[in-house]
Amino acid sequence: MCGLLCIGASTGTSAASAQSLSLHDAVQAALSSPQAQAAAAQTEGARGQLKQAGLGPNPRLFLQSEDWRPWDDDFDFGSQTENYAFLSQTLETAGKRGKRVSLGRARVAEAEAREQIARFTLAAHVAGVYYNTVVLRRVAGLLEQDMHTVDEMVRYDQLRVNEGAMRGVDLLRMKIEHDRLLLALRSAERDAAQAQLELLKQMGRAPSTQPLELTDRIDQAAGLAVIAPVPVDQVLAQRADLQELRAAVSAAEADLAVQRSLRVPNLDLVGGYKRNGAFNTGYSALQLDLPFRNRNQGEIERAQAAVQYARSSLAAAELRVRAEVAQSEESYRQERDIVEHVLPDMRSNAQQNLALLTEAYRLGGVDLLRFLDAERTAFDVEVSALRTVADFRQAALRLQLSYGEQP
């Protein structure tokens, strides 16, 4: 059985027939997928709302004619009617337009933060599925190599049985082990194929059975870069979810300002021309609502509650982020310690034990059961080591996300 650090990421698929895919390429594909484009479209929608918020009300044109009597034979339109042509313009008071713009800017900031969260989430999902696919393929590769070893042992034992140097029951036991490994191999290959389909789904690509050569290796533990700690204050400043909540506080405060400004009625100025019988005259008017009953009290109370909710949500999220960072740093430290100090000795001991018992079995020094036990132990150790490195990779991903950094 080959060691953890010397098996490639693919499992018997020809590199010439497989499409190469690095983790970077997979993440970039996801960030240009329809799901990422949908998040970007929401941001563009918020920018459109901001543009609309800065526009003032349009003037209105009124054309009016009164006192028509077309059924009267003595009716004269020019001297017996009153005709109007005038414009009306609403003047916004209490700085309503500026307050709407402030609200629009805060909502754009919210949308941009949500878009960044969506991009980070996509990248993290793709990275997690990518590493899971690599692990499953590696498990299949280990099983396939075990199959080759058992095939050799079956042929060797068959020769010994034919020569009368070995019991047939031991050969039968080895054939059973061969069938067990074959079943496990087919199951691992199925799981790896399903993992590739999941990877394509996360990348926003159509399902395909064309093999992918995943070029990033999960098992090069010695070459894994150390993630430097980030000060908590910097984390609080750069986390996209906290940026969204801070923008939500700004939006809630801006909305409260808008609602308060609506207590003050706007002014409608009207001016124009009036034809009064045979006379040409001017016309002007001023219109406004009288805020006797409705002073927007309900919306102001709603906006005040929204401000309190947004501030409380931000405070709770900051506490949660501090806890997440501490947990992620501790998990990363422990996983790295295992990868660097526990795995090498564990793997080395299992490989040495297997090598010794394999040679002893060939020489007839140990029975079949001890050989099979050593082989399964070595396989289990390899799979455990592989999954441990995968756990370390996941811990590193969680740490990067907790720092507010894109994986």
Please, could you describe this protein's structure?
There is one protein chain. With 407 residues, this protein is an alpha+beta fold. It has a single domain, classed as Outer membrane efflux proteins (OEP), CATH 1.20.1600.10. The protein has helices at 23-31, 34-53, 77-80, 96-162, 168-203, 232-238, 240-261, 297-362, 368-402; strands spanning 19-21, 60-66, 82-91, 212-214, 267-276, 279-287. The strands form two sheets. The chain has a four-stranded antiparallel beta sheet, with no helix packed on it. Strand 5 (267-276) and strand 6 (279-287) form a beta hairpin. It is elongated, with a radius of gyration of 37 Å. Residues 1-16 have low confidence and may be disordered.
Topology record:
Elements: E1 19-21, H1 23-31, H2 34-53, E2 60-66, H3 77-80, E3 82-91, H4 96-162, H5 168-203, E4 212-214, H6 232-238, H7 240-261, E5 267-276, E6 279-287, H8 297-362, H9 368-402
Parallel strand pairs: 1-4
Antiparallel strand pairs: 2-3, 3-5, 5-6
Helix pairs in contact: 1-4, 2-4, 4-5, 4-7, 4-9, 7-8, 8-9
What key attributes describe this structure?
407 residues, alpha+beta, 4-stranded antiparallel β-sheet, two-stranded parallel sheet, disordered N terminus
